[in-house]
Design goal:
The chain is mainly alpha-helical. 47% of the residues lie in helices and 7% in strands.
Length: 549
């Protein structure tokens, strides 16, 4: 019976990411509105139906003037697993495909789309029980300092575990509910397993709360522990570390300066390096490179080389972010970081050694500077056997300029440009400009992609194609101030580096990644601001600390 009630309550609580999560067990519901704030949840799992419930599909959520609405955000699959590892202080926690994260705008962070439904609730329950059994067998000494069934040990265990799992201290009502569950067993291991399994199914574990406490009419300030979780999951995809928890406990996350201080500290950690790398891959839409179909008859793109390509981009992005570099530097850097496989792929002879370690090198003259010249970007935004001016132009328009482009009309044939021929790629793609059905959209993409034609479907430099010279002239149509002529990758990169639209677009994507909702990207930074200052401005913004009804 306990299993059925727990699973059912999750399904009821998580039908949407906004609305009532629950109320004290056996008591009146809190009425309309978001999840109750800290200290108001009285049950192991809320089960009452009182109060309105959100519909089956979450509604789009955006910021208002400067802050967005109160909400709860389901942990991503990555955050879920890292949270379990943090709770039990072990990388050996059992794993399972429990949560599925929809990809929105290239990222898996959307606060309005990630919810737990019936099947997911069953999977959560099953995995929670598996993890609880493993934890009692392997990590009990880590999560408790006593193992007796008296009230003192029981309450100490429940409070300590609850703070780990819920990322904030338990309320007295929560303590009483979990203590009663503990008391239903006659031995400490059995009681601990039941409490662990129950907590790992709770919305207070599965969802991050951004609810706050009333400050002024219609305005709510996030609690210190909510802020700690918001910052930790943004930067590390994991719960707050001991230093951040201590700052929350001491009330030292109240000001923008407090948050900026912790931002600087956490950015230096390996966990932040990994998570900021995830942002870079989502922004550039290269995360799926390991599974991207490529033609082995043209070039054998091994899994190791694919990983090296992604490693180069992650390493450069993190270097620029940590060292105070700007978007201009990220786009125009005349250096990069390579390991042995990528060194060979680029034909770089400088340095050497290091094996799997990424080393800083100066780019050869034939390599385009910055991230647009990376093999990860050029290879991902290409076809299986040939380059793709369309895909590369689309990348620039949508990920660097934040311009929405319509999908191609149904039934439009593309076979003529998908396979290598005896002509150049440019010559084959010029058909788009002659076809009235294609021309309107392709004039926005193809001429930009033509400037990158010195790089094939695997990001390798080529001086010619099929023995014919490559024409890398192009144009950015409709740019602010008029059309921009292009002549090669450097001309495109230099224009983007000077573009206020590109800087604003980068801020837009970083804001969306940080907040998980649209419309909170009105962060104002100087045009020469380092990337870390853009991130700091997001953390200092009102929306990071406050919410509206």
């Amino acid at each position: 019976m306990t299993r059925i009630v727990l699973a059912l309550s999750i399904a009821m609580a998580a039908t949407g990411c906004l609305g009532v999560l629950g109320e004290p067990s056996g008591g009146p519901g809190p009425g309309p509105g978001p999840t109750p704030g800290p200290g108001t949840d009285g049950g192991i799992e809320p089960t009452s139906d009182s109060g309105p419930r959100p519909g089956p599909e979450p509604e789009p959520t955006t910021c208002g003037d400067d802050v967005g609405p109160r909400m709860v955000r389901r942990l991503t699959a990555r955050q879920y697993q890292r949270s379990l590892e943090a709770i039990f202080e072990s990388p050996d926690v059992p794993t399972a495909d429990v949560l599925s994260d929809p990809v929105v705008h290239g990222f898996r962070v959307d606060a309005t789309q990630a919810v737990i439904r019936d099947l997911g609730a069953q999977q959560v329950m099953t995995h929670a029980e598996r993890v609880a059994s493993w934890a009692v067998a392997n990590r009990l000494a880590v999560i408790t300092t006593c193992q007796t069934i008296d009230a003192t040990c029981r309450d100490q265990f429940v409070r300590s575990l609850g703070a780990r799992v819920f990322r904030e201290p338990l309320s007295d009502t929560q303590l009483s509910a979990y203590a009663a569950l503990f008391d239903s067993e006659s031995t400490f291991p059995a009681a601990a397993e039941l409490v662990i399994a129950a907590m790992l199914q709770s919305p207070y574990f599965l969802y991050r709360r951004e609810i706050g406490t009333p400050e002024t009419a219609g305005r709510h300030r996030l609690t210190p522990h909510e802020l700690a979780s918001e910052l930790a999951y943004l930067l590390t995809d994991a719960p707050p570390d001991s230093t951040l928890r201590a700052a929350a406990d001491a009330g030292q996350l109240a000001t923008p300066d407090d948050l900026a201080r912790e931002l600087d500290r956490i950015l230096a950690t390996p966990a932040a390096a990994d998570t900021m790398g995830e942002f870079a891959m989502g922004w550039l839409e290269i995360a799926d490179l390991p599974s991207r179909a490529k033609d082995d008859a043209v070039f054998m793109l091994t899994p190791a080389l694919r990983a090296s390509m992604l490693g180069e981009t992650r390493t450069l992005f993190l270097h620029v972010l940590r060292e105070g570099g700007t978007l201009r530097e990220l786009l125009t850097a005349d250096y990069t970081f390579v390991d042995a496989p990528l060194r060979a792929h680029y034909g770089i002879t400088e340095g050497g050694g290091g094996g799997g370690e990424f080393q800083r090198v100066t780019l050869p003259a034939v390599r385009a500077p910055g991230v647009l010249g990376h093999a990860s970007v050029l290879t991902r935004h290409a076809l299986a056997a040939t380059s793709s001016p369309v895909a590369r132009g689309h990348l620039v328009r949508e990920r660097f300029l934040c311009e929405d482009l319509p999908a191609p009309p149904p039934g439009v044939p593309t076979d003529s440009v998908r396979t290598p021929g005896t002509t150049t790629t440019r010559q084959r793609y010029l058909e788009h400009s002659a076809n009235e059905t294609c021309a309107a959209c392709h004039r926005l993409m193809d001429p930009i992609g033509f400037s990158l034609e010195h790089y094939d479907a695997f990001g390798r430099y080529r001086a010619d194609e099929n023995g014919m010279p490559i024409d890398v002239t192009g144009v950015v149509h409709g740019a602010p101030g008029g059309d921009v002529p292009l002549d090669g990758a450097e001309s495109l990169i230099d224009w983007l580096a000077d573009s206020a639209q590109a800087r604003s677009c980068f801020t837009h994507y970083l804001s969306y990644y940080s907040y998980g909702i649209e419309g909170c990207d009105d962060v104002v930074v100087d045009e020469s601001a380092p990337l870390r200052d853009v991130l700091a401005a997001i953390v200092r913004a009102n929306h990071f600390r406050e919410r509206t009804d």
